[in-house]
Amino acid sequence: MRILIDLQACQSESRFRGIGRYSMSLSLAIARNAGNHEVWILLNDRFPDSVPWIRQLFSGLVPKHRVKVFAIPSNVAESRFGNLWLTHVSELIRDSFIASLKPDIVHIASLFEGWADDVVTSIKKLPGDYNVSATLYDLIPLLNRDSYLSDITVRNYYFRKIDYLKKSDLLLAISESSRQEVLNELNFQEHQVVNISAAVDHRFQSQTLTELACKKLMRKYGIERSILMYSPGGFDKRKNLKRLFEAYSMLPHAVRQQHQLLITGRLPKNTEAQISAYASKYGITKGEYILTGYVDDADLISLYNLCKLFIFPSTHEGFGLPALEAMSCGAATIGSNTSSIPEVIGRSDALFNPYSAEDIGRLMHLGLTDPGFLSSLEDTAAAQSKLFSWDNSARKALEAFERLSPIRSGDEELTEQALYKKLIFEISKVEKISKKDDHELAQIASCIAKNLSPNKKKMLVDISELVQRDAKSGIQRVVRSILINLLENPPSSYDVVPVYWGGQGYYHASRFLNKMSLLSSDKSLVEDVEDEIVDVSCNDIFLGLDLTAHLSPYIRSTLEEFRNIGAEIYFVVYDILLIHHPEWWPEGLSEMFRHWLQDISEVSTGLVCISEATALEVKDWVLHFGPNRVDYLKIDHFHLGADIRQSIPSTGLPQNAKETLASIQSKITFLMVGTIEPRKGYAQVIEAFDLLWKSDLDINLVIVGKHGWNVDTLVQKLKQNDSVNSRFFWLQGISDEYLEQVYASSTVLLAASEGEGFGLPLIEAAQHKLPIIARNLGVFHEVAGDNAFYFKASQPEHLAEAIRDWLHLYKNGQVPMSKALSWLTWEESTQQLLDAILSISK
Question: What is the pTM of this model?
Fold first, then answer.
């Protein structure tokens, strides 16, 4: 059986109240006890910050692909005057989305949502082949219409929800009291309403607070003495705050001097002023009561453990979860003798008449002053709280689901296209829809499009930098190589879609593909193809393949939207040298890169580094500068390939190529490959070779790399070197075809860089069976192992000496050879990247 739980109650304002706490705890318990049943979660895209948190809570219980997020227009809350038409449209959109998931039963965690928030709940707005269940908390507004439904718009909203409630196939009541209310007031049969009760999270338990913890907690909330505590779970009239203050005022002065009245909870507008008026009326001074405002769970548990007596004077509750939370923490608890509260407290002499301030005060005084009675209440709390269990509630819910008769018609299920047509037809009948402007209709159309499931999942490969320019850098060679392999060998069940940032979102890189002739076999592509903005669904993968740190301020919100929809986000990290050595780059780049790294570490499903060494550095950075996220950031690595022929190689040779290659071949030639930039060690190398040349050592030095940054003085030295074009050759911006021939003509690769993410030239050298001289870096050891000659050199003299040592070994046939160095093709490298992504996503 496929069970879809609508958990919007854990996204809306209800998440701060008992309804949200109940909904989450029950849903987690259902997932834990589901057995062979499939549990799916339904969420709303109007609350994006809550999606990762909820997805993480269900991690290990519900696969990520079963946490579905549907899109609706903004401003659908029914409290917005004149917007009911949009609420109706959004309800239809939600029901259509639900039908596309083909559930057997839909359970609505809280039906009475959507008055003040952009939440939509309905039952069988669009008839579907599934049963619908809803949690029944209470019918308090129905039973107290004068207090709760005096406003006509609120009344219309509430009775519209009651009409939906009546369409339920099953109601899960949170207490026997609530069950009897619905049987008495609404036309339900006995078997349609099941009392599954409630429980509290396992964190709510008795604990011993240290003296330091007590002092810290008391200082935080202004507590100066023993506390009489109330957590109302809301501040409407039935929470009975007025009589509570009146009862507190009746306590003897000495008792009040020893006990502060502490009230927790998020305070709605004007509530504090109302409470202050109660206190003033009954002569209660400011220091005698405390309003904490919102309290997180950790502090709430500590306060339950700290309080001397917990009081729950509400006149009407569906269950009374705060009372059970307090009792689970060992707090002596007294409460009202009405509705469901006696079921929770389980002891008649711990109950009072909530409509009598005198009776409340009598029991309050007894609890605060009679040690024997207080001790017995604590014993009752410990025993009674053990009778309630979320797992028991979940098992009762699942048994009730199983008893429902399947309502599949047996006919062929509606296709998504048929569902879409049905939705459009029903929307067209909504009152006032024909009078809406294009902007409003476009918003609706956009939401419908987001909710449609594509025929195939997409892997969106970000090549934003490559689309703008091919700088022929090492990173862009990687991007080109992996891109072509992803296009030629897409991962199973995915369409590979190259994309780029276009200012307002990510666009298909169709023009770029035509220009590069990457899909020349696809005759459907034409030169004037338009780049359209990309649609993203919950099953898609976004792969940040290009380095786009400069775009970080612009792309984050879009990536968060992708993540919240349910798409997975991965970024390739080439290195984090900008973090550790900002001096190697132009001013400001390090800070820009740090922001980018922070952003991607907060929005990504995982990061995939190009070496284990880089992965370890990233993990260390995360450990010390942890990103703000609710789940653990997964970090993996892969290795780069080195088959230039698989990387869409550039072609073309300069006129003097033949002469230059002949000069390279004429003597022992040391080859360096990489942009001229501070970290690459070129300054040290050229000074070392000047020393070697002055000692009449007849060897070549070839540098292949463009003019980079912060090296103008060095570049001038290179251009003016006495050995230019005789023993020293600087080849800038050459094609891949020419580079291949340079590798083939050289004697040895010299890798003098002081920092790298991988070291691709080492692999390319091994392909050409060139020996390797490399600086003693961990990442070079990772790439080349024992197949290279390593040096340590802080000064040019030390490097010159290392080169002499290598030449001695070379002439005697004793240098380490690279032919045993294992390397990957770009096809294999791409597969490693995909394997890393798939392992992270599990």
Answer: 0.75
